[in-house]
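Subject: Interface between my chains keeps coming out wrong

I've been trying for a while to get a sensible model of this assembly. When I model each chain on its own everything looks fine, but I need the whole thing in one frame so I can look at the contacts. Pasting all components below, labels as-is. Any help appreciated, I'm running out of ideas.
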Amino acid sequence: MKVAKRFRWEGAHRLPWHEGRCRDLHGHSYEMFVEVEGEPDEQGMLIDFKHLKRALAPIVDAWDHATVVAENDTKLLGIMQESGWRHVVIPYDTTAENICVFFADHLVGEHLDLLKERRIHTVRVRVAETETCYAETERRVEG
Ligand SMILES: [Zn+2]
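Reply #2:
Try treating it as a single job with all components included. I did that and got this:
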């Protein structure tokens, strides 16, 4: 059985090495589906949606109306720190693929007990920057 919860936020980013428009600071209405797969309990529930929300909403809230900055983008990081504008820093480039990785790692890294307790064996995170494209990553829940 699979269940998924959708999250949405508005955010800015850039890819400094990109040869097209993604090089410049721009924004997206991000949409993320967090899907978990496993065996439902005796009552027919895999996971309470509110527990998924509790696990991820604080991060989504911190990212909303913020600029996501790659740690090595020192130019943008400097501007953000100097201005005091709302931003979050991640340790890699701010592609949709890496944002999937960030949220998947957070869920499996920080909420492993919840996943195990609910007998969830696989987590998938899908992040869309636009209506027509998305990236997705998958994690096996070990143990
Ligand atoms: Zn973009």
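Reply #3:
Confirming on my end. The longest helix spans residues 49-63.
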